[in-house]
Structure formats: C-alpha cells, structure tokens
Amino acid sequence: MKNRDTFSSQIGIVAASAGSAIGLGNIWRFPYMAGKNGGSAFIIIYLVAIILMGYPLVYTEFAMGRRAKTNAVDTFGIIGGKKTWNSVGFLAVLTVFLISTFYMMITGWVIYYFYHSLTGGLYHISPSTDSVTYFKSVFTHMSSSMGIPLIFSMIAIYITALINSIGIKEGVEKYSKIMMPVLLVLFIILIGYSTTLPGFSQSMTFLFKPDFSVVTPAVIIGAIGQAFFSLSLGMGALITYGSYISKTENIRKIAKQVTFADTAIALFSGLLIFPAVFTYNLEPTAGPSLIFISLPQVFLKMPGGRWFSVLFFLLVIVAAITSLVSMLEILITYTIEKTNWTRKTSTWVIVFLTTIGGAINIAGEGPLSFVQIGGRTIFDWLDYLTNNITIPLVAVLTAILAGWVWKNVHLNKELEIGGTPSTMLDHQFNSILKWLIPPTIIILMIALILGIEA
Questions:
Q1: Rounded to whole angstroms, how far apart are CA atoms 413 and 410?
Q2: pTM for this entry
Q3: Could you tell me if residue 2 is inside a domain?
Q4: What pLDDT digit, counting tens, does each position of 344-369 carry?
C-alpha cells in the first residue's frame, strides 16, 4: 500500500472533523427537528444522546480508523477479524453516498438563496404582495424546476471536489482550518443581532423550558438520529478521518473537542433562528422550509435584513461545504484503495456518481414530484431511511463490534496511544458503549417501525 497522507496537527484534525460534524445537520436540520418535536424536550434528549452515545461513538470511530489505517469498509473487517464485518462498512458507505446526493441538492438551494440575497433579487417584492405567498412561490419555483437547482448543486459539488482532489493535508485540512474560524465569526455576528430581537426571551423558553408530554419513541429516536447525523456517526466519516490521524495524537481529547464544537453550533443555530421566528410570529414547526420560506420573511422585515440574509446563507454554505468534503472523502478513500486510481481520478468519478444521485433527488422534488410512495418524495424517503434506520443501525453495530468483538481492552490500548491511561470515567463510557447503546437504539428503532407512539 502507498504511504497514506496524514493530518499535520491536532488543530487540523479537530477543524476537519468538526467541519464534518458541523453542517446542514446543525444549521438547517436541528432547528426544524427541534421545532416540530416540541423544542426543549427534544433538545434535552438530544444533549443526553450526545453525551452518553455520541461521544463514546466518536472516539470509537476515530480509534477504529487509526488502528486499521484503511477505508471505512475494510476497517470493520480488520477490527472484527472477519471479512463478514465489511458488510457494516458497506452499509455506512452506502448511507453517506445517499446522504451526499440530497445534501448536494440542499447546498445548491442555499447557494441560490445566497446569490439572490447578495444581488437583492430575493427581496424584490411589491408592497401589495403578501410576503408569505411570495416566499413560498420563490421556493416552489426554485425547487420545482430542474435546471436552476441542478446548476447551483453542481457548483456546490464541484467546489467540494476541488478541495478533496488536493489531498488531506493540503486540501481538507488547510481548507477546514480557514473556514471553521470564518464560520465561528459569522455565528457570533448573527447571534449578537438575534439577542436584540423582542422574541429572544420567548425563544429561550421554547429552547430550554421542557414539556415532556410531547415525548414519544419517534421523538426520542429522532433526537438520537439527529445527534448521530450531526456528529457524522454511522456513516464512516470519523473512521476515515481517524485513519489519517497519527499515533502521537490524543484521540479522546480530539473526540471531546469535536463533540463540544458540534453541540455548541447546534444550540447556536437555535439561538440564531428562533428569536427571529418568534419576533415576527412565524411557526417554529415550519419544517425543512424554515430557512427558505420562514426566515426570508424575517429578513424582509428586519432593518438591514438583506445583509443579515447574505451573512446567514454564507454561514450555511461554509458549514455545508465542510460536511460535504468529509462525505466525499469517505467515498474517495474507499475508491482509491480498491482501484489504485489517483486521488484526482477517484474524486471526479465520485463527483459524477453523486451528481447523478443529486439530479434524481432534484427531479423528485421538481418535475417528478408526483412520484411518491406513502406520501413521501425521493428526498423524504432518503432522509427518513438514513436518519432513522441506517445511521442508528450502523452505530449499533459499531458499538457491538467495539464493545463485544474488539473488546474494551483493545479499544483502550488504541486510545492510550498518544494519550493518557484510561480513567474510571473512561471505563464507564466504554461500559455505556457496550451495554447501553445497542439495546437502547434497537428498542427505539423497533418502536418507531411498529408505529408505537407512547
């Protein structure tokens, strides 16, 4: 095997891994998931899932990747000692490919809104026109067509491909170290403005005063799925990045930093979006259209709202691209090691396949939107399948593999390389990985599939 590229520093690892985790899952998906699932009760379950399930799986995936030093598929076979475990890796890689196809589409939507915010075209509305009707029509016109979203989605995927094609150290790491500080600065500016809005106190109540009467198995599995989606778990991303981590790095420390950064950004997204929603009497349960239909209504009414809109959509683009980079990297690393193609060739082959998948999603939301199964479009089904089925399933199997097959003694040995001896708390997290995560997720998935609501 050729010498593998590596990250050059801990900052680079954290920036790239946090960039993988911090994306549309935090800024686009987290607010609407919290909104439609009762706000603070969902958030509390989400935070518990992050601490008890997310963090142990983050350091486990990093450790597995560094130990195996190969692609996400073969890592499972090496750690498990049998090639039959590779099937779990295949499921993870398939999951990330499916996600990348609709992630590309949504990133294209965001670039479209950024461009039209920058030029002012998004807010060319006559005083006599109802703003709700207007922004619904803007979104419908954009998403229901084929050409417009495809063009902007291809811009998203080709920007991503240029970064991936350069390599880990000079491409993925260097880009992440630049863009993650940019992301943080944009958040600080936008949240600072949001705290001045009249709806800020109401949003704090919505986000942090729980009503547990709304909690059902669907809400719980949704919160766990959101935690895994947000942290890029169950799709091979952290395993792939782990394979590029040197033996001198402290994996537990890196995992804590990535988990904290991802969770903070998710909460920041709520603090950014919901004050505006409540100030202008919009519906927090608006769903996926929240940032495309509801928020532009807010920007229209705000003093200087157009520039707030530009900054907001720029922030989302930066976050989306960093995540898309990690998704493509999983697929590219696998392709390189299975075909011996160059990185550039592998990158453009993956881009071609992802673009086809993206075009299918775009058609499913546009010209072929009448093609539905059970009332769901192609995108709806892919979102449901990956978030509620395949991501939790891969996470369960990863926990079983690490806790029961690889076993804690070998996991701890890998974690202590470049780190410190395992503490009692570390052993407790390993016990959670072994005893709590698998049965909890399996029970919730069965309840969800059977439609049990209480």
A1: 5
A2: 0.88
A3: no
A4: 999 999 999 999 999 999 999 999 99
